[in-house]
């Protein structure tokens, strides 16, 4: 479970980095940055929904760590 979440999170980071590279390199002349940011949003939403589903199915449990 941790490995899967880590892989998807790293995918989000890589997509964000590639969007930055496309921003600097293309200077708004192509849609590659928009596609990279679309992938980032899609991966983030999928990761969030997966964590919610895993919690609902009992694959992961909350730790009950206090916020303070």
Structural summary, described in words:
This protein has 2 helices and no strands. Helix 1 packs antiparallel against helix 2. 75% of the residues lie in helices and 0% in strands. By secondary structure, the chain is mainly alpha-helical. It comes from Alcaligenes pakistanensis. Keywords: Membrane, Transmembrane, Transmembrane helix. This is Membrane protein.
Q: Structural class, judged by helices and strands?
A: mainly alpha
Largest sheet: none
* Measured distance between first and last alpha carbons: 27 Å
Order of helices and strands: HH
Strand content: under 5%
Overall 3D geometry?
elongated
Q: Classify the helix fraction into a percent range.
A: over 70%
Cα-based radius of gyration, to the nearest Å: 16 Å
Low-confidence stretches: none
- Count of DSSP E strands? 0
| Average of per-residue pLDDT values | 89
**Total of DSSP H or I helical runs spanning 4+ residues:** 2
Features of the shown structure:
transmembrane, 68 residues, 2 helices, DUF2909, Membrane protein, transmembrane helix, membrane
Summarize the structure.
This protein is 75% helix and 0% strand.
Strands, helices and their partners?
Elements: H1 2-26, H2 32-57
Helix pairs in contact: 1-2
């Amino acid at each position: 479970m941790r490995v899967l979440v880590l892989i998807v999170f790293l995918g989000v980071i890589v997509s964000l980095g590639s969007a930055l590279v496309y921003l600097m390199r293309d200077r708004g002349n192509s849609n590659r940055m928009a596609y990279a940011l679309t992938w980032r949003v899609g991966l983030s939403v999928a990761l969030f929904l997966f964590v919610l589903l895993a919690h609902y199915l009992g694959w992961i449990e909350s730790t009950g760590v206090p916020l303070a």
